[in-house]
Amino acid sequence: MDLSPMSGTNSACSSTEDTTAAMAGSKHRARSIAAEQKKLSDSVAESFNSRDARRLGELSAVTNALKQWEEANQSLTELDSLLKDPATDPELLALASDDLNTATAQITLASQTLATSLVPQHPFAPLPCLLEFRPGAGGAEAALFAAELLRMYQGYCSRQGFRTSLLKYETTEGGSIDSGSSADALQEAVLEVDSPGAYGELRCEAGVHRVQRVPATESKGRTHTSAASVLVLPSLPSSGDVEGNEESWNDRSSDYFIDPKDVRTDVMRARGAGGQHVNTTDSAVRLTHLPTNTVVSMQDSRSQPKNRERAWQLLRSKLAQARREAREEEVVRLRRSVVGVARMGRGDKVRTYNFGQQRVTDHRSGTSVHHLDDVMQGGVGLEKLMESVRSWLAEREVEALVAEEEEEAGSGEGNGNGRKGKKERR
Q: What's the maximum distance between 2 C-alpha atoms anywhere in the chain?
C-alpha cells in the first residue's frame, strides 16, 4: 500500500517509487473513511442514533491510524527539507540526520497500522465462540493430547478473564460431564467461551495441533507423533437477534437462518458409563440438517430440553461457519493468484509441540517459544504465539486487499482502453 512518505534521501524515498494505482486507491479509501467519520460525528452530535454511533466506533481505528500516519509523514517531510536545504546550520543538520532513522521507523509502523486498519473486521469477530476438540492420528496418545489442549485453552481463558463452560465432554470410555468420569482420553469436547470478542481472539487457533513426545506407555523411549484438531466456531445465541438486532433468525439471507423443516430431531437413551439417567431416559438429542447432512448430538445433561438447546446452538454455529467459509472459498477461487482469505481448516498443521526440546513452533508465523510448560498452562508463551499468528493473519488479509485493489484497477484500465478503442473504430 502507498503509505510511504515523500522524501529526497535514499533511506526515506526508496519505497515511494513503488507507487501503483491500487496503492494510491488504498490511501484514498482511508481519507474517504475519515470524511465519513467526520460526517457521522456531526450527525450524532446533533441527534444520537445507535446505528450511527456504532458505525462511528468502527471507523475510529482507521481515522486514528490515518492521523498518526499523516503526523509521521509531516515529521519526515520536514526532516527531508532540512537535509536538502544547503543553508541549514551544520549543528541542526546533524540533529536532523540523527532523527531520520527514528522518523523512518515511525512512518513504517504507522503505514503498517493504517494498512491493517483498512481490512474489514471479520463478521463473527465480536461474537463469543465454541472450541471443538477431537483426537486425530495417534490413537490413545492423540486422545490424551486433545484433553491437554482443552485444559490449555481453559487456562488461557481464565487468565484473560473469559467466561467458559463445557458444553460437551466425552471420553473414549464413554464418560461425559454428568457421569463424573475422570478419564483423560478425550473423544470429543466442546468448550463455550461466552465473552464478546472471543471468536476474534481465538479464531487463529483453528487447525491441526501436532505433538511429538515419548508416551508414558513407550518402553523403548521412542518419540511418537500424534495430532488433535481444534475447530473454532462463532457461538450464536439460542434465540433472538445478533449483531445489534440487525439480522434476525427469520431472515433467509442471514448466515444464522435455519428452516426447522430442514432439521430432523431424534431422541434416544444416553450412552456411557455411570449416572442413573444413562440407559433409562430418552435424554440424548441428535439433530440432522438434511440439506447439508450436518449432524450434531448432545447427551451431557440429564435434561432433554437442555440437550436440545445445546444441540441447536452447536448446529447454528456449524452452519453459519460453513456458509462463511463457502463464501471465502469462492472469493479465493475467483482471485486465483491471490494469497486468499486467511482461514485455517482442520487439514492444516498449524502448530507443533515438541516435548523433548521443550519447544512450540507455529508453522504459519514461524514463531517458536521454548517454554512449553507455560504454553500448556495457557500462559504468556501461548499468548505470544497467538499474537504472532494474528499479525500473520493481518498481513495475509492486507495482501489479499491489495491484490483485490490491483485487480480492480487493472480491470478499470482495461475497460477504459476498451471504450477508447471503440471510439477510434467509430
A: 94
